[in-house]
Amino acid sequence: MSSDLSEKLKAHIVRELEISGGWLSFDRFMALALYQPGLGYYANDSVKFGSMPGSGSDFVTAPELSPWFGRTLGRQVAQALAATGCLEVWEFGAGSGALAQQILTQLDAMGHREVRYRIVDLSGTLRTRQQQTLAAFGDRVEWIDRLPQRFEGVIVGNEVLDAMPVQLLQRRGGIWFERGVALAPPGQPSADSPAFVWEDRPTALRPPCEIEGPHDYLTEIHPQAEAFVRTLAERWTRGAAFFIDYGFPESEYYHPQRHMGTLICHRSHKTDHDPLTEVGLKDITAHVNFTGVALAAQDAGLPVLGYTSQGRFLINAGLIELAGEVPVAQRANLAKLVNEHEMGELFKVLAFAPAASAEGWIPLGFTAGDRSHTL
Asked: Which residue in 224, 176, 167, 171 sits closest to 204, CA to CA?
């Protein structure tokens, strides 16, 4: 079944290539590979999320690793709801529904049973799984197909920015190219037929900062993630947003030594660097340039509330206090959330808010160790 799905998706991409003159920018290819209805990775019915390869999953996210991730984030959400006068939580890209379940459980434990939870997710198959996970919360949870023209609430997004399509830029011999996708020449041997290949075209696009040195350099730019933030700014009137993902500030993202970029694929809890094969059967992702996202927010009128590591954020928000309730058997996974050599340092948290909601309070997660000055 999976090979048939991949063949159908490849055939669809081939048709897109033919329509576009034989070349697709990588962000368009990535969008098709991940989100083409019924066929793309996030639009088909593969398991995706899970803690062990034996479950048929491809990767683990923090809510699957430990329920105390979402419970701690729920404490931050409760403070933000009170500070901004909102009664709604909006989650983008809700995955298995585990994070929503954990946040709602914590809100209920704190007496906030009046809060409604709205989920925006492009995947119909994931929506079915989310509905099963969240059935106990009844009509407090609602699924939204598209953003309304005006809305308010506390926004959360865990590993959603990294799944937004990116463009690839390649500097070769001092000249910048945009790296796109084409069909392999006829007769070129390949076990993956039809085969896709890289094709670079000269471009006026550039990374947001100069890359030191003359060496060849491959990297990503993130226009879709930045456009997403601008769309929020146009419609979101009150609340606060917390985005958690792996990534770096600009100075680290475009460091001269990071010359191979950050693009990576996940399948069966293994990684590879070839997004052109097994299309539809594996995740494609890139690290987040948090400076770019923060600047897009600020320029659109959404002041930054804070930026720090996931480990620091969770400790500030009360993970240690909650950890007293954690069974001993679960504490190893809990440690992975905050240890620097695990998820604690690679993952960051960025928060911003409409200007009217940004004054007069500091989110719990940024009360110590804020790194906004590094953006």
From this structure: 176
